[in-house]
Amino acid sequence: DTGVSQNPRHKITKRGQNVTFRCDPISEHNRLYWYRQTLGQGPEFLTYFQNEAQLEKSRLLSDRFSAERPKGSFSTLEIQRTEQGDSAMYLCASSPLDLREYFGPGTRLTVT
Amino acid sequence: GESVGLHLPTLSVQEGDNSIINCAYSNSASDYFIWYKQESGKGPQFIIDIRSNMDKRQGQRVTVLLNKTVKHLSLQIAATQPGDSAVYFCAEKGDGNKLVFGAGTILRVKS
Fold it and tell me: Nearest CA of chain B to the CA of A54: how many Å?
């Protein structure tokens, strides 16, 4: 257990609905990352925070996606107007100021 | 863009044998590499990492080798056990702070 927790673990939603996922990183880790993983593929970077500042966003992160880390601790990832193509595992990782990232268990999203 | 090339092959090994999983990367500016293990329904689990100023690093039963000349990374697992069965990913960091993953290798351990 790396100490990164994610909630919920599974989410089934209908197309067009909004969903929000939460990530609690390892305590005192400055950096927090969001990735998306589809079946048979490696995780793809979405965005990352250093403390409360969002420093980089992937082109994968469309206008329907927004991430926050308001107090530099937990983070939320919201997807508005979900589409079937959003179905994936959403992974959160955290790291101290070195390079190693520790992943949580992920939230599996199914859009019907 | 740059990518780590790993096209989901499957490696089957007998319990007790050594396993070698290979990975090619394309970004010569990458200076940090990690191997992760992922079991079904779980997040990637850190195994071992290596910086570009090294060519070998050893952990418990695992060794990572880095050949920068041919941009090749390998993970060696000694005395493979059934619990080692999983998907293994290599990942790199170069410009910026994000990990770039390949597609993974499935390791199956036969008892």
Answer: 12
